[in-house]
Amino acid sequence: MENQIIETEIIQLTKEDFSSDQMVKWCPGCGDHAILHSVENVFPNLGIRKEDFVVVSGIGCSSRFPYYMNTYGVHSIHGRAAALATGVKLANPKLSVWMITGDGDCMAIGGNHFIHTIRRNIDINILLFNNKIYGLTKGQYSPTTPKGHKTKTSPQGTYERPFNPGELVIGAQGNFFARVLDTNPKGMTAVFMEAAKHKGTSLVEIMQNCVIFFNKAHELITSRETRDDNQLQIEHGKPLIFGKEKNKGIILKGTRLEVVTIGENGVTEADLLVHDQYEKDPGVHMMIARMMPPEFPVALGVIRSVAAETFEQSMMDSIAYEKEHSSIKTVDEMLNSGGTWTIE
What we know:
Elements: H1 32-42, E1 53-57, E2 72-75, H2 81-91, E3 96-102, H3 103-107, H4 111-120, E4 125-130, H5 165-171, E5 176-181, H6 185-197, E6 202-207, H7 219-222, H8 227-230, E7 231-233, E8 241-242, E9 248-253, E10 256-261, H9 283-290, E11 298-305, H10 311-325, H11 331-335
Parallel strand pairs: 1-2, 1-3, 3-4, 4-6, 5-6, 7-11
Antiparallel strand pairs: 5-11, 8-9, 9-10
Helix pairs in contact: 1-6, 5-9
């Protein structure tokens, strides 16, 4: 019998394939626009069929995202995006599930679902829009609002200590954490690609600007005048070096990180800490995630990326085992097994 040649259609997806026909209703200048365009650039290049993408969100400005992506999507309820995304992934593990959330939706009302999703290591991609404020409900302070900042619900300045998303993720045994700026679309696209390739829960914190209720929240890190000394672009296998002249760096001194200047006190580039995003021990990753001005620059890029078994794979293995070894094969057999009785 001659070999048969089966012709298959290869569909080349483009950014336009994922662009929704819905009007994008974010404020002009909002960082969400840049994030949307970056995601639209990523999806066509993942080698995944269009019908296998699902975008899930909770409540907030960021959570309008499913309307603006031409994919399957769920606009769920406040703080419950992680629960919905988990259910979608467990129901159909082949799907590429993207959870869109904000600092309030995710770490306040949704905090419980969030930390347990991270702990379980379900293979979903979480994009956390961190603008340090509640935008949709008009300017109340959120779990990431800086201490002392005046808002509608903290007229004398909030006296709560803010969450650092990186600390929360790594503390919840997270295996992938990255941080990006909404002003760097190229950087966002590259990190989103890395997150998509990671098997397990990936969390990307996007330092995003709300032009209405907390404009310039990340100005120290993003402004042309101050950014060189306050942001550090990290790459695996490269030393932690920053500054306008690329003459500053981070060293590990005992159990603490320290900022040094190359050329002073005998310090050379060889003395700097080299980033290893695949290191299983989270200690150094936690310290890098904690770095904040004015003492340290903010680390941007993939901070932690560690392989581990996913929750849905463990679930499928468990189901397969029971199917093979259980003496009960049907629901009727289960209902009529063990102690039963008849009511007359």
